[in-house]
Amino acid sequence: MPPAAELPVTLDMPGKVADFLRTTDLDAVERAALDHGVVVRRGQGYTLRVTAAPAVHHRLLALCQPLDGGQGTPAIPAQRKARREYENRVSALVQTGP
Description:
This protein is α+β, with helices and mostly antiparallel strands. Helices cover 47% and strands 19% of the residues.
């Protein structure tokens, strides 16, 4: 039996984060996690319900770091907020884990 930390978990990823990640170079596992996500409409935007191992969520979070701006790239407030929301959800995995 795999350790509990490696069991898949479902997290809601803001649509702005999902849209950004779809334009990045992902490995097969990360791409599959996004492709199998379930779209949930939220007002003007959407949320992507992604089920993946915590390690995959952490890698996806690391890949969307450019949404915070820096390196001469201006940050768009709505994208920065969306990344922060996803970061909070991923961070909660560590706190609620065994």
